[in-house]
Design brief:
Transferase(Phosphotransferase), domain 1; Arc Repressor Mutant, subunit A; disordered C terminus; 10 helices; three-stranded antiparallel sheet; binds adenosine-5'-triphosphate; 3 domains; binds magnesium ion; Phosphorylase Kinase, domain 1; alpha+beta
């Protein structure tokens, strides 16, 4: 079942169901499969209720019982989503979840609305889901964690940390809240730079991106996965840089390598797609200083 379908059935979950999910979550790093006996010991209700709850959660796809091991359960992404959604709702962060606005390789991003009526972007990390080659390097670095759910929780933690450091100094989505593998930010009504078919002032947009990379560097952060897919542009030419889980600090041994790669990705995109091959000397200088060597574009 997709998250969107599941959200419509969220009402079906009882307090008992959430307790089971919480127990599974608490044991995430201890067990790959949480033994039935352990869940039974931890719940504060009858075994009949537990069995009913497990059957329902299994049926809805929130947990999974590996074949041949009926007496142990694995928490699925949907189960962790349910816990996160409950927190977002009880804390009054999100009052309604809308449609998917970005189904990426490592995350699903949903449109949502806050209690105050502002629009939000809710990013559910989905590390480990079958994905494309070029994202493997990003994933590798995050999978020091025990399993994919934990890797996703760590990715969300890292992304929220970066956004909190950068907000107000660098154009990024304004961070609102983080729980588990979910990051909530304000919605930016823009389009991915990579998918624009028309761009009024391409050079101006490029310069804004360079400024943003520089400001992030001054805060101490290198993006490390910057591309035209991770820049959103609005009709008025304003931009934000998104998708920060893999960032590194500037004193990371490979920070300058990553920084150079980020800058080169952006420069070559603008050269190729928008034929911007020259930029004002001031910006050449900024880039030169940043990557400690001038780059031919
Ligand atoms: N704050 C936001 N406001 C508006 N749209 C957003 C926001 N954050 C993300 N999106 C949309 O969701 C898409 C995916 O977001 P993001 O790049 O953070 O996740 P991702 O899973 O890493 O995607 P991918 O793996 O495809 O790069 C973005 O390309 C953008 O279209
Ligand atoms: Mg992205």
């Amino acid at each position: 079942m997709s998250l969107q379908d599941f959200v419509r059935r969220l009402d079906e979950l009882t307090e008992e169901d959430y307790s089971i999910l919480s127990i599974m979550e608490r044991n995430l790093s201890k067990f790959r499969e949480v033994p039935y006996e352990l869940i039974l010991k931890a719940v504060k209700f009858s075994e009949t209720k537990l069995e009913r709850g497990l059957a329902k959660l299994h049926y809805l796809g929130l947990i999974w019982s590996p074949k041949g091991k009926k007496m142990a359960y694995i928490l699925n992404y949907l189960g962790l989503d349910a816990l996160a959604l409950r927190t977002l709702s009880s804390k009054g962060i999100v009052s309604g979840l809308g449609v998917p606005i970005g189904v990426g390789k490592e995350a699903d991003v949903y449109d949502a609305i806050s209690r105050e009526g502002t629009r939000l972007a809710v990013k559910f990390f989905r590390i480990g889901r079958p994905s494309f080659k070029k994202y493997e390097r990003v994933r590798e670095s995050l999978i020091k964690a025990h399993n994919y759910l934990e890797a996703s929780i760590r990715a969300a933690y890292m992304e929220f940390k970066a956004l909190s450091m950068l907000a107000g100094k660098v154009p990024v989505p304004i961070p609102v809240y983080r729980t588990r593998h979910v990051v909530v930010t304000e919605l930016f009504e823009g389009i991915e730079l990579a998918s624009l078919s028309k761009l009024e002032d391409a050079e101006g947009v490029l310069l804004k991106i360079i400024e943003a990379i520089k400001s992030a560097y001054e805060v101490g952060v290198v993006h490390r996965d910057l591309s035209a897919y991770n820049v959103l542009v609005r009709a008025d030419g304003s931009i934000i840089l998104i998708d920060w889980p893999q960032w590194v600090e500037i004193d990371h041994p490979q920070a300058s390598f990553y920084l150079k790669r980020d800058v080169e990705n952006i420069l070559s995109f603008f050269a190729r797609k928008w034929n911007v091959r020259k930029i004002p000397p001031k910006y050449e200088e900024i880039i030169g200083k940043l990557v400690k060597k001038s780059i031919n574009i």
